[in-house]
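queue> pop job 88
queue> type: inverse folding (structure -> sequence)
queue> payload:
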C-alpha cells in the first residue's frame, strides 16, 4: 500500500517538475507565466475595487455612477459609519493578530529582503484590512491592496515552481505592477511601477515579462467589463519654454510638501503610540476624527478619485483649494496614524493636483507677465507630489501621458518629477513605503535586492579549523607547535578559553623576541572581533577600520567560533554581485 501511494505521488509530481524545468530554462515559458499572473492580478484588482465601492455604496447610499469623495454633502447620520467602521476594523485587526502575530510584509519589503518570498496568508490579511479601511470611508487608497494581491499570486506560483531568486523577484514585481496597471487602465504605468517601485531596477531580461503581465492585466480587467479609473480632462494646454522653468519650481515645492507629509505621518504615529491608546480603539478614534473632517467636506473620505475629477472640472478659489488640501492631508495622516490600513498612492495624486492648482493661482496673483493653465498645473503637480511620496518618476509621468494623451504635458511632468525625486532622495532618502520600514528599524531605501547581504553573514563565511594556543605560552612552544609556513594566523585563548587576540605566525620568527617571552606580547586585534550575525557589508567595514587581513568570530561571551579572511570576504562579495548581474541580464 505504501509503495502504491509513493508511486502515485511520484507520477503526480512529474508534470509539476516538467513545468519547473520549462519556466527555469525558457524565457518564452517565463513570459507565459507572467501573462497568467497578470491576468489573475487584473481580475483581483477588479474584484477588490468592486468590493470596496460596493461597501461604500451600501453604507453611504450613493449611486453606482458616483464616488464617495465626489459627493457634495453627506447627511451627518451617515458619518457615524466612520467610527462604526473603525470598530469593525479593530475586531479584524485583533483576530488577524491572533492568527498571524508576526509583522506583515508587503511586496517592496519582500523583494528587497526576502528574494520575492511573500506569505499568501499574510497578504490576505493585508488586502482585507485595506479593503475594509477604504470601504468604510477612511482616507487611504486601494492601490496597496491591488499590488499586494498581484504580488502574492506571483510569489505563490513562483515559490511552488522553485524559480530562481531573480526570476521570483521579477515575477512579484510583474504581479504588483500588473494590478496597478489594471486599476488605472494604464499598462505602461503598471510596468514602470513594477520596475521603479517593486523591483528597484531595470534590465533587459525583465522588460518582456513585466510588460506582458501589465498588458494582460489591463485586457483582463476590460474583458470583465470593469471601467478603469480615468481623469477626465477637457482642455490641456501644452507648456511653453518659459513654463518649464515654472513647473521646475513646482517640482521643488512638491518635494518639500512630500517630505513634510511623510514626516507628519511618522510623527503622528509616534504621538499616538506615546499616548498608549489601546490598539483596538485607535481605528474608532480615527473614525471620529474623519467624521468631523467629512462634515466640512466629503472630499476628505476614501482615496479621492471622485474629488480629483470634481476639483479639476470646477473653478475653485485659492482659499478653497488650500482648505481642501489641509483637510485631506489631515484625514490621510489621521487614518494612517490611528490604525486604518492603506497607502498614500492616490491621496498623493489628489493632494498634488491641489498643490498644482494653488501654484497656478499664486502665479496669476503675481505681477509677473506669466500665464499658466490650471489643469496643466494640476496634472504636473499631481505627478510631482506622487513621485515625492511614492517614488517612480517614469511611473507617474506615464500615468499622466496615458491619462491625457499629451506628450507635452507628460514631458513637463517628467521634468518636475525628476526634480522632486532628486530633492527627496538627497534631502530625505526614502519613499513613503521605505520610510515606514526605516521607522521599524529596517535599512532599505528601495526594493533593490539586499536580502542576500543579510543572509551572507560572518557565521556562514568563517572557517572553524582555526589553530589556537594559550596566551601564556612561550615563543619556544609556539615555534615548536607552529613551524614557519604551517599557518598564517594563530588565535590566542585565555585561561577561560576566551578569545585574547591573533598572532601572525611570521611575527614569532622575527629577530628580537626571546624564546622565553610570552606569545601574548605579539597579539593583535585583541579588541576587534566579528559576531556571527554580522552581514558581509558590516564585515567588510570592520576589515577596513581594523586594517587587518583576518579577524576572529566570537560569541557574546568572547568564545571563539571561527576565523574570517578579508580576501575570502572580498571574493565572495564579488561573486555574489556577479551572480546578480547575470540574473539581471538573463545570463544565469
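queue> result:
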Amino acid at each position: 500500500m505504501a509503495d502504491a501511494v509513493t508511486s502515485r505521488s511520484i507520477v503526480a509530481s512529474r508534470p509539476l517538475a516538467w513545468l519547473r524545468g520549462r519556466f527555469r530554462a525558457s524565457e518564452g515559458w517565463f513570459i507565459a507565466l507572467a501573462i497568467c499572473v497578470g491576468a489573475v492580478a487584473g481580475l483581483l484588482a477588479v474584484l477588490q475595487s468592486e468590493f470596496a465601492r460596493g461597501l461604500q455604496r451600501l453604507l453611504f447610499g450613493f449611486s453606482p455612477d458616483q464616488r464617495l469623495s465626489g459627493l457634495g454633502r453627506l447627511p451627518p447620520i451617515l458619518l457615524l459609519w466612520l467610527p462604526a467602521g473603525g470598530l469593525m476594523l479593530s475586531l479584524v485587526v485583533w483576530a488577524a493578530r491572533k492568527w498571524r502575530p508576526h509583522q506583515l510584509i508587503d511586496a517592496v519589503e519582500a523583494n528587497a529582503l526576502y528574494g520575492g518570498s511573500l506569505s499568501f496568508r499574510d497578504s490576505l490579511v493585508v488586502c482585507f484590512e485595506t479593503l475594509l479601511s477604504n470601504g468604510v470611508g477612511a482616507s487611504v487608497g486601494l492601490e496597496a491592496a491591488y499590488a499586494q494581491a498581484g504580488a502574492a499570486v506571483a510569489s505563490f506560483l513562483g515559490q511552488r515552481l522553485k524559480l530562481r531568486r531573480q526570476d521570483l523577484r521579477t515575477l512579484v514585481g510583474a504581479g504588483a505592477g500588473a494590478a496597478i496597471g489594471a486599476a488605472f487602465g494604464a499598462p505602461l504605468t503598471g510596468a514602470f511601477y513594477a520596475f521603479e517601485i517593486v523591483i528597484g531596477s531595470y534590465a533587459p531580461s525583465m522588460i518582456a515579462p513585466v510588460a506582458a503581465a501589465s498588458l494582460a492585466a489591463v485586457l483582463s480587467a476590460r474583458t470583465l467589463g470593469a471601467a478603469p479609473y480615468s481623469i477626465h480632462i477637457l482642455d490641456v494646454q501644452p507648456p511653453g519654454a518659459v513654463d518649464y522653468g515654472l513647473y521646475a519650481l513646482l517640482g521643488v515645492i512638491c518635494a518639500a510638501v512630500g517630505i513634510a507629509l511623510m514626516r507628519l505621518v511618522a510623527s503622528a504615529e509616534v504621538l499616538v503610540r506615546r499616548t498608549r491608546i489601546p490598539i483596538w480603539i485607535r481605528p474608532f478614534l480615527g473614525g471620529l476624527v474623519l467624521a468631523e473632517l467629512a462634515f466640512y467636506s466629503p472630499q476628505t473620505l476614501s482615496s479621492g478619485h471622485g474629488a480629483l475629477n470634481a476639483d479639476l472640472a470646477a473653478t475653485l478659489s485659492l482659499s478653497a483649494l488650500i482648505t481642501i488640501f489641509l483637510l485631506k492631508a489631515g484625514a490621510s495622516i489621521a487614518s494612517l496614524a490611528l490604525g486604518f490600513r492603506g497607502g498614500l498612492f492616490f491621496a498623493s495624486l489628489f493632494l498634488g493636483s491641489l498643490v498644482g492648482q494653488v501654484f497656478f493661482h499664486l502665479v496669476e496673483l503675481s505681477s509677473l507677465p506669466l500665464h499658466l493653465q490650471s489643469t496643466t498645473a494640476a496634472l504636473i503637480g499631481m505627478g510631482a507630489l506622487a513621485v515625492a511620496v511614492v517614488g517612480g518618476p517614469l511611473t507617474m509621468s506615464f500615468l499622466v501621458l496615458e491619462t491625457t494623451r499629451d506628450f507635452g504635458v507628460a514631458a513637463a511632468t517628467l521634468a518636475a518629477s525628476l526634480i522632486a525625486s532628486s530633492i527627496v532622495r538627497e534631502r530625505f532618502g526614502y519613499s513613503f513605503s521605505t520610510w515606514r520600514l526605516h521607522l521599524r528599524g529596517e535599512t532599505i531605501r528601495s526594493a533593490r535586492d539586499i536580502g542576500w547581504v543579510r543572509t551572507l553573514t560572518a557565521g556562514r563565511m568563517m572557517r572553524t579549523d582555526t589553530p589556537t594556543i594559550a596566551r601564556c605560552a612561550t615563543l619556544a612552544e609556539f615555534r615548536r607547535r607552529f613551524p614557519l609556513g604551517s599557518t598564517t594566523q594563530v588565535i590566542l585563548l585565555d585561561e577561560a578559553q576566551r578569545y585574547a587576540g591573533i598572532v601572525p605566525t611570521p611575527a614569532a620568527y622575527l629577530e628580537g623576541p626571546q624564546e622565553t617571552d610570552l606569545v601574548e606580547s605579539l597579539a593583535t586585534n585583541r579588541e576587534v572581533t566579528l559576531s556571527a550575525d554580522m552581514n558581509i557589508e558590516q564585515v567588510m567595514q570592520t576589515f577596513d577600520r581594523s586594517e587587518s587581513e583576518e579577524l576572529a568570530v566570537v560569541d557574546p561571551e568572547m568564545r571563539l567560533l571561527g576565523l574570517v579572511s578579508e580576501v575570502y570576504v572580498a571574493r565572495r562579495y564579488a561573486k555574489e554581485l556577479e551572480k546578480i548581474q547575470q540574473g539581471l541580464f538573463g545570463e544565469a
